[in-house]
């Protein structure tokens, strides 16, 4: 058995971790609100990947068979929620841009002390 | 074959995602993100999740990213409005924290996360049940999660109304 | 005899006070005057009717108005009692009070606060009547505190003057010290006898120790209210109030409450001979002490104030030596002539547009004859140079002191031996000296005010007061003369119609008899002779010094002695050094350290400052930069990851 098949689950999980790290780095580093939103999508997809990886390669072997597809339904809900979040988030960006003519989050600081 | 596909897709996902984070102009990021979602859909297919892969392409790469591109075009940011990257102490600390946390996660994942390697493969165990297919996922969704499903529809409705109210100047 | 109308006597002035106080500002002036005067007059008439019905068959009228409170074994009724003592007191209070009300109509006519003044005055009458009529110590204490309150209100009547407001506070606080003793006395008596009712207390025989403690505590209250050593200092300052107030409260009625109380509790006092000796000694010392101060005061009201303190001292000699009738008799006659003197001085001040300094008076007999004549009669009465009321009552006190047996059995084991037999004659001697000084300073006051030439400024034209003020003066002067009936010696009136009117006979068997028995009868002529000589001697000294030379007569005594006398023996300064300044220092310390630093600084502002400090710290994180939050969250997630994945496994 080759290396990939011997450590198949780990491959997916490491990929998810790296993807999440890229998304988190984007959120922390970038000033552009649109890119931050996209980075959040990346992080959500990393979570989705984790869901699906665990759905296929469970940690607990003797669970009821049907329950493993709950990982898939969770991804379904995450996708739906992400769509809603993107719609509202982009609407907020438009509204803010209209009043402040900027999309840089470090300039949205009216709510500080 | 499966391993080659995984490495290709993984490299595509990471490369395109890096473009999202690193590109200065968001339009390049958005297009790269579409690519990343396509590669991710491939990864999902490798994980025996055909329904989710299709949804990924349709909803993410299609609907959501169209929304992003649309907004980017709408705002039509000038070169000087894009701004220069700024480094602060906390940005550096956050980056270090992200890298360190990911390092720990990767280290733990490569370590003894799975007691018996190779892991149990549900796709193999449940090959006859249509694992990850429309019928199997649909049964789980509608039998076990009807209420969250309906609530999600309500959430989408609220989000649509909210987006309209927030983005529109005057109603 | 139980009746149902006694409560009307204090209730009518109380209603008058309420009407004047609440509606007086809007009522027409004559209505306020009418309400204030008529309510007191009605009280006087009711008291008079009750008084003339008292006789051998009806010893007292009694009414339980309502059951005030009952707690455990303690039952206190708001009950009123009118007997020969309290009946006479009621007549003095309402009678003199009514005259002073009438006088006040003229005196306070121009003051914008007249309605407030009459409300306080009526309230005072109501409280004083409660004090006198109460049939138990608690009801008496209600009146006791009520008159203290009215005294405070009226001394500080012109409260916009800081000095007068201060005098009011001083009177109130000094009285509080005495009231504290009075309260403890009530507690001791209730604790030992289980009752506060006078009638029941009179039947209880208390052991010497308990009786002494209770009598001493009550006497502390009396020294406060009746301005005796060492608590007399408030009374001279109380002259800051309107002059009719000085006449009513600080000469005729309120300050005699202590004497009345001791007389009312005579059964208690005779069972504590040591305290009686103390009462008499305090009385004679006060009489001498304040008479000395009075000799060098130039403010006419201050002279009369110290004179009042001195005369109160004489009353305490009377009750202290066991001659309760003599003390209370002097109380009544003193109410007449001292009220007359005060109102006369008020007429002088009124006629001189507020001048009180005798240096700028003189020769006023030409300008205000009625005032001068009444003042002269009252001065004769108080100095005793002619045998009218004051002569008899004061001489009765001194004669009783000379022959007293009240201090016998002053041992813890009574065995019939006499003790302190020298104390009575000593009191007599010192009291006679005080009587000499009384004659001296009162005639000094008279000569400086009315004789010689007018020394005041040109632009002030002295004028006689209106009839509404001189009429009460004449009535009081007549009473000062007629009061002699009360004091006629028994041997003179024996078998005549006047016998029933002498105070000694009238209150016979009313007061308790001292343990050593009554004072033996003494030859009145010798005592009267000495008293006349003493009185005339004072007059002669005063006449020679002041009649011609006026205020220059003071030069006979110069230097340090005069300064000491003019500064009232520096008692105020001594109290200031002993009590007031340490209290102020303590209060400042409490304010600065406990209140300002610990409570305000540490607890109130300290907590707020700590929260503000925490907030200032926390708001540095709340800088509005979302990315900062994300970065901090990332660091936090790293910490969680470290804790759960690295250390947890």
Structural class of chain A: mainly alpha
In total, how many domains does the architecture of chain C comprise?
3
Tally the beta strands of chain C.
Answer: 2
> Count of DSSP helices of chain C?
26
Number of helices of chain A: 4
Largest sheet, strands/sense/barrel of chain A: none
Distance between the termini of chain C: 100 Å
Task: Explain this structure.
The complex is a heterotrimer of chains A (113), B (171) and C (649). By secondary structure, chain A is mostly helical. Chain A contains four helices and no strands. Chain A has one domain: Helix Hairpins, CATH 1.10.287. Chain B folds into two domains: 1-77, NADH-ubiquinone/plastoquinone oxidoreductase chain 6, subunit NuoJ (Four Helix Bundle (Hemerythrin (Met), subunit A), Up-down Bundle), CATH 1.20.120.1200; 122-171, no CATH class. Chain B has helices spanning 2-22, 26-46, 50-75, 79-82, 89-110, 122-125, 134-144, 146-167. Helix content of chain C is 69%, strand content 3%. In chain C, strands 1-2 form a two-stranded antiparallel ribbon. The longest helix of chain C is centred in the C-terminal third of the chain and has 49 residues, at 571-619. Chain C starts with 7 loop residues before the first helix and ends with a helix.
Keywords, separated by commas or semicolons:
heterotrimer, A: 113 residues, mainly alpha, Helix Hairpins, 4 helices, 0% strand, C: 649 residues, 3 domains, two-stranded antiparallel ribbon, 26 helices
Concise summary:
Chain A is 72% helix and 0% strand.
List the SSEs and their pairings:
The complex is a heterotrimer of chains A (113), B (171) and C (649).
Chain A: H1 3-6, H2 8-29, H3 33-56, H4 70-100
Helix pairs in contact in A: 2-3, 3-4
Chain B: H1 2-22, H2 26-46, H3 50-75, H4 79-82, H5 89-110, H6 122-125, H7 134-144, H8 146-167
Helix pairs in contact in B: 1-2, 2-3
Chain C: H1 8-23, H2 29-53, E1 61-71, E2 74-82, H3 84-107, H4 114-133, H5 137-155, H6 162-193, H7 198-203, H8 208-225, H9 234-237, H10 243-252, H11 257-264, H12 266-270, H13 273-294, H14 300-320, H15 324-351, H16 369-383, H17 389-402, H18 423-450, H19 467-482, H20 484-487, H21 490-493, H22 503-506, H23 524-547, H24 559-566, H25 571-619, H26 626-647
